[in-house]
Specification:
By secondary structure, the protein is of the alpha/beta class. It is about 40% helix and about 15% strand. The chain is built from 14 helices and ten strands. β1 and β2 form a beta hairpin.
Amino acid sequence: MEYRRLGASGLEVPVLSFGTGTFGGSGPLFGAWGNTGAAEARRLIDLCLDAGVNLFDTADVYSNGASEDVLGQALRGRRDKALISTKTALPMGDGPNDAGASRARLIRAVDASLRRLGTDYIDLMQLHAFDAGTPVEETLSTLDDLVRAGKLRYVGCSNFAGWELAHSLAVAERYGYARYVTHQVYYSLVGRDYEWELMPLGRHRDVGALVWSPLGWGRLTGRIRRDRPLPPTSRLHATADFGPPVADELLYRVVDALDLVAQETGRSIAQVAVNWLLRRPTVSSVILGARNEEQLRDNLGAAGWTLDDAQIALLDAASAVEAPYPYFPYRRQAGFARLNPPLV
């Protein structure tokens, strides 16, 4: 397993990590993903640790805390072998202080996550969303206090706009607060919006990307093709509206290219899709999801090998879409690109 620095920190993490959204799954979204109990979760974590994958990602909102609870049970007795990443900020109730990133909410949310996880520290706490109603200074000073108290080791964010992340980094720098070292983002061959603004910002400010849904919300598994309807058992029947939209023609074009590369490399389509991400700038780790051992073993095979330049170029071309303003001049015109060439 390859390890990389987690953004502007000294912590090294595996290039593949494991997302626990299926743990304790309940409700219309997480219940459709799976319902992994503690015994099966322990087995999946065994497979991860054996492969060198020691970073496990969860969130308080996953099945209303059940994911954290099951992860904590599965790690009991070997907490020191694992890195735990969790998230907070999304609503956990209907009360006025049950959502957001205020001082009151963050302190209570961190303590609740610690209880569910059965640990006295969290390796990485990320804000699940930007809270526009709370001053950034209040949020960051609270996170800094929690780091100094030893409850959190590192802090990051997720699903931020470029200006929100840039402003947060500037405030942390101004006051000497713990800064965001990660940005957990959606990024896949059928969802490359991350590249327009967030990737250059991550490179410039050394914020590592933790990639969620690397298979395009379950679309890049090889089961969906031009001539093959969505399987009756696909979770997309229940969950498509929760995730990022993908145009059919883009999906089919990308799967066609993935199929060619998979045949050349002897790898699965999912492995090729994840390996492409591992070659992209700023990516610290790609978060894998799996409902069972078979899926997990296949996904773990995405690391330890490398696509060649021609294969990467084929996938790049198949997944390319027109850049929005103000980015398209730098893609279309040599004069613009000379001043500010794209990272990829």
